[in-house]
């Protein structure tokens, strides 16, 4: 009697935790069902604890089945095989398929990279004291994180990338002097959810701070309890590979070369084909491939690319075509901070700079040079992400602001 009780309870617990694991972190499950953010964050925080409980329950069920003939053999086989799928798929997907390169990324010369990257391919760029790194989107697709122990001119900088959001942001993985151990776990709201393995806390890529360190923001999203609890963002901008070659001829390029292990080679090849197919749909179709969005806004089509900033609760985004219509340069004030937004046709790149000159800027080059001075790039720009993702996390956003116009007057669909 006791053996049968342990068999059925153990099987039920194992299956329940396996189902929750597959639902919350299986990723592909979000193509079929909506996953609540709070459920996903709970599993991220307690992943190994819950897995241990589920596997112990399965082990106990197996023990009493074989030692005391508790439960039907067909039920045991069904439970066992389902658990292999429900536990195995998410674990392999997350911890092997999405293995990142935050400490092991390899960067190559432009000449070597040209074998893997076409001239018009979009790249995401970071620069420090004249030393620049380009990250082609296709190369970042699977690892999501790229950096190495050498750092960028002595600075610890990791490029984070979410293909579902079309968003790359570079961060220093450190908070108040404590280094974060970032790992890729999931996506929600079509944006990457990371985990700090040192604390177990989830982080939303677009925000750059841990969930436990956050509070509701004025723009509708979230903000850190204090500024020092957010990772330091680095000026991150987009351009074409040919534009990068013109601007930084000595720059280096991240290339995710195939592994030498033949099993991993085949596994990665299949995974990247699946990624490429789903991301191609994400760019082509109006509806998100994984529609776990909680906020909808028809001021712009979902898949419009926007360049967004948020300062002190004031969120604004611009479209590249609007900037071009302003003769490639516009001035705006966000959160009390004057900014210059400019498109550079030679380098095929849109940038945002702090404007501390006290007057409007009408002429600025790719490097921030004006006729009077050199301006500093704004480090908080979110470059070229999808509108539906930006507005999910900043629902109070203004669009295409010029000057200090009120939101209701300056928002343009």
Give your account of this protein's structure.
This protein is α+β, with helices and mostly antiparallel strands. It has eleven helices and 23 strands. The model is unreliable at 407-413 (pLDDT under 50).
Any key phrases for this structure?
413 residues; five-stranded mixed sheet; 11 helices; 23 strands; 26% strand; elongated; disordered C terminus
Please describe the topology of this protein.
Elements: H1 2-25, H2 37-45, H3 47-68, H4 73-97, E1 107-109, H5 110-113, E2 122-128, E3 131-136, H6 137-140, E4 145-146, E5 158-162, E6 167-172, E7 174-175, E8 178-179, E9 182-188, E10 191-196, E11 201-204, E12 214-216, E13 222-224, E14 232-234, E15 236-240, H7 241-247, E16 252-254, H8 262-284, E17 305-311, E18 314-318, H9 320-325, E19 329-334, E20 337-344, E21 349-354, E22 382-386, H10 387-393, E23 398-399, H11 407-410
Parallel strand pairs: 3-16, 18-23
Antiparallel strand pairs: 1-16, 2-3, 2-15, 4-5, 5-6, 6-14, 7-8, 9-10, 10-11, 12-13, 17-18, 17-22, 19-20, 20-21
């Amino acid at each position: 009697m006791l053996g049968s009780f342990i068999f059925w309870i153990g099987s039920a617990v194992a299956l329940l935790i396996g189902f929750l694991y597959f639902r919350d972190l299986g990723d592909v499950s979000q193509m079929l069902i909506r996953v609540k953010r709070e459920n996903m964050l709970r599993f991220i925080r307690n992943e190994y604890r819950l897995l241990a409980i589920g596997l112990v329950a399965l082990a106990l069920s197996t023990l009493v089945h074989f030692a005391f003939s508790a439960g039907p053999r067909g039920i045991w086989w069904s439970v066992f095989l389902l658990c292999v799928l429900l536990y195995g798929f998410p674990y392999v997907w997350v911890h092997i398929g999405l293995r990142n390169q935050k400490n092991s990324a390899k960067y190559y010369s432009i000449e070597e990279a040209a074998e893997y990257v076409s001239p018009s391919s979009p790249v995401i760029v970071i620069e420090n004291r004249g030393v620049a790194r380009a990250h082609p989107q296709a190369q970042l697709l699977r690892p999501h994180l790229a950096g190495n122990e050498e750092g960028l001119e002595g600075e610890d900088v990791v490029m984070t990338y979410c293909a579902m959001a079309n968003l790359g942001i570079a961060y220093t993985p450190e908070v108040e002097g404590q280094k974060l151990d970032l790992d890729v776990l999931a996506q929600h709201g079509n944006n990457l959810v990371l985990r700090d393995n040192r604390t177990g806390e989830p982080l939303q890529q677009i925000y750059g701070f841990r969930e436990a360190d956050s509070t509701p923001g004025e723009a509708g999203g979230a903000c850190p309890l204090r500024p020092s609890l957010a990772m330091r963002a680095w000026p991150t901008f987009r351009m074409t590979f040919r534009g990068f070659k013109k601007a930084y001829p000595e720059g280096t390029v991240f290339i995710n070369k195939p592994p030498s292990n033949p099993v991993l080679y085949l596994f990665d090849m299949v995974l990247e084909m699946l990624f490429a197919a789903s991301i191609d749909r994400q760019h082509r179709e109006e509806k998100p491939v994984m529609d776990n969005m909680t906020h909808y806004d028809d001021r712009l089509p979902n898949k419009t690319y926007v360049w967004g900033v948020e300062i002190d609760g004031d969120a604004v985004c611009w479209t590249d075509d609007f900037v071009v219509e302003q003769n490639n340069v516009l001035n705006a004030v966000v959160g009390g901070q004057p900014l210059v937004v400019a498109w550079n046709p030679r380098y095929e790149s849109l940038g945002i700079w702090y404007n501390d000159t006290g007057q409007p800027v009408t002429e600025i080059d790719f490097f921030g040079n004006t006729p009077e001075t050199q301006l500093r790039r704004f480090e908080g720009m979110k470059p070229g992400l999808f509108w539906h993702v930006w507005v999910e996390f900043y629902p109070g956003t203004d669009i295409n602001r010029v000057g200090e116009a009120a939101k209701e007057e300056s928002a343009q669909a």
